[in-house]
Design brief:
- The protein is mostly helical and 151 residues long.
- The radius of gyration is 15 Å and the shape is globular.
C-alpha cells in the first residue's frame, strides 16, 4: 500500500464514519461498523508519512465522538484528551483546541460528570471568542449546542 493510499483511505473512512453518525436508524451492527471506520481512518492517517499532528488530533476527535455517541464515556474521554494535548501543543488551527475541548465536554457529559462538562464547554467558548473567522466558530458552536445536558 502506498503512502497516498493511506491518506486516501484515512479521508474516505473519516467521511464514511460521518455517513453512519448522521443516521438515526443505526442497528447494533452499524454501530460496530461506525466504530471500526473511525479507528481505521485514524490508523491510515497514522501510516501516511505526511501526516501532521492536527490530522492525528482530528482523528482522535472523530473516534471520541463515535465512542460518545455509543455511550462509551471512558474511551471518548481518552481520545478527547489526546486531541487536547495535541492542540495545546500548538498543532492545527485555533478552532482545533475549541473542538478538542468540545469533545472533552461531550465525553464528560456522557459519563455523567456535568460539572466537568460545563468547565470544558466554558473553556471551549473562551477559545472560540478569540477566533476571528466566523466559519471556524460556527462549526464548534454547533457541536457545543448538541452537548448532553443535566436532566
Amino acid at each position: 500500500m502506498t503512502d497516498l493510499d493511506h491518506r486516501r483511505l484515512g479521508v474516505d473512512l473519516y467521511n464514511a464514519t460521518w455517513d453512519l453518525l448522521e443516521r438515526t436508524d443505526r442497528a447494533p451492527e452499524d454501530d460496530d461498523e461506525m466504530l471500526a471506520r473511525a479507528h481505521a481512518s485514524m490508523y491510515h492517517w497514522l501510516r501516511f508519512e505526511g501526516v501532521r499532528p492536527e490530522n492525528v488530533g482530528r482523528g482522535h476527535w472523530l473516534v471520541s465522538r463515535v465512542h460518545a455517541v455509543l455511550g462509551q464515556a471512558d474511551a471518548a474521554a481518552y481520545h478527547a484528551s489526546r486531541y487536547v494535548t495535541i492542540a495545546r501543543g500548538g498543532a492545527g488551527e485555533g478552532w482545533d483546541l475549541a473542538a478538542a475541548l468540545e469533545a472533552s465536554a461531550r465525553a464528560a457529559a456522557v459519563g455523567g460528570d456535568f460539572d466537568a462538562a460545563e468547565r470544558y464547554e466554558a473553556e471551549a467558548r473562551d477559545v472560540l471568542a478569540s477566533l476571528t473567522d466566523p466559519e471556524d466558530r460556527e462549526v464548534v458552536e454547533a457541536d457545543l449546542g448538541t452537548l448532553p445536558r443535566r436532566a
